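tokens incoming
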């Protein structure tokens, strides 16, 4: 009973209590925020980032394979067209050489006989 009387007799000055509560509240919030950030927020962000990075890598790999395949097909088509062009040029060259030989024979009268 004596304790209640003592508590009732002493007036607590609110001007000294509010800064203390404010400090404890701020410190409590800082501790809670640090705990929440390190145990929940950062791991979730890291996992999300890891998943996004993995998805991006998969898409990039698929796109790279597709582009390399297209490039390989283009190179093969170019190589095939080049071979056809070379064969066409060779046949035209041979035809021109044969035509020139035939023209020389006719011009010079070189039919193989002496005379």
């Amino acid at each position: 009973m004596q304790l209640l009387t003592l508590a009732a007799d002493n007036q607590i000055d609110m001007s000294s209590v509010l800064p203390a509560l404010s400090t404890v509240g701020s410190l409590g919030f800082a501790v809670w925020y640090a705990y929440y950030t390190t145990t929940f927020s950062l791991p979730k962000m890291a996992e999300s980032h890891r998943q996004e990075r993995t998805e991006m890598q998969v898409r990039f790999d698929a796109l790279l394979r597709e582009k390399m395949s297209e490039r390989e097909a283009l190179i093969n088509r170019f190589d095939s067209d080049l071979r056809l062009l070379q064969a066409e040029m060779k046949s035209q060259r041979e035809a021109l050489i044969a035509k020139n030989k035939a023209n020389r024979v006719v011009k010079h009268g070189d039919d193989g006989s002496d005379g």
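note: The mean pLDDT is 85.
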